[in-house]
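Response to reviewer comment R2.3. The reviewers asked that we include at least one raw input/output pair. We reproduce the pair for GDSL esterase/lipase here without editing.
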Amino acid sequence: MTLIVFTIRTCNSAFPSAILVFGDSTVDTGNNNYIKTLFKGNFYPYGEDFPGKIPTGRFSNGKLVPDFVASLLGIKETVPPFLDPTLSNDDLLTGVSFASAGSGFDELTTAASKVILVSKQIELFKAYIVRLKSIVGEEKAKRIISESLVIVSAGTNDLVFNFYDLPTRKFQFTISEYQDFLLAKLQSFVKEVYDLGCRTIVVAGLPPIGCLPLQMTVRYVDPFKRKCVEDQNSDAQAYNHKLQKLLNQMKALLPRSTIVYANIYEALIELIQHPQKYGFVETKRGCCGTGLVEAAFLCNPITPTCAKHSQFVFWDSIHPTQSTYQYLAENLGLEAFPNKLLHNHSNLF
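Raw output as returned:
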């Protein structure tokens, strides 16, 4: 896989020296290790390909997109979870993840799991700001935050938990209405992050949800007839179209902001439809166990894994492998950063 090296400037023409991450399991680097929930990934085979073969709580065999982005930007090699009690001052200065696996924008998404709702991750961010000010003082802390790269990745769990597999919200909303409900919450969240001083924000769209191995398993009883669930993919595309319009509107309304849409859908569907082009082989099942249903505690130390991890798009029935995350991070660097974050920054301040 070709490594794409890219540069990015924040809106006052400084390179970001910190990365701040909010969202779900796609960007949770281990916060759920420190809360009472069954949604944990701090055991094997998770982490099998992480440096030192450590199951850090990342729901993959290795690194996640924030880790690769931080590395590509020259910030650091991995992004630690904010709730880790062993965080050093340097960890805080260069950024952390506030994300929580199983999270979403809808309060109902986290009601049973007790993970940290995206809107509640703001409280962690406020605690981070207090700690940052105690280390470097108020003015430098403000500068670090304003020059940070913020990544937001959530929404999949809302649709999977509340609309598809456990359709509680289906009794209240049409799919279009539920998308609008989620986007209103996302809008409030981004505005609050902005009000706390962040200016460069990358918001990931939804992936092709219908191509997650678990979603194919739920829809198709015969394991030999499994294929992407097209209506769920169409829903994700419709949501993403609305999200792009919303982010453009927000950018126009929020002075000095750089708000970027990350097109995860097209990057991942390209990989699923043309795996050999990128060195992959298996797209319909995860590497862990049968790959049809295993995730979280069902993917555990006694579960066998595939022989060639890097050839699988998915590690378990929901989450991508490290190789896929690297591909997505490089795609994000190639598509989003040079074209949008480097465009006309001199005119933003």
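The longest strand covers residues 19-23. The CA atoms of residues 179 and 239 lie 6 Å apart. Further pairs are available on request from the corresponding author.
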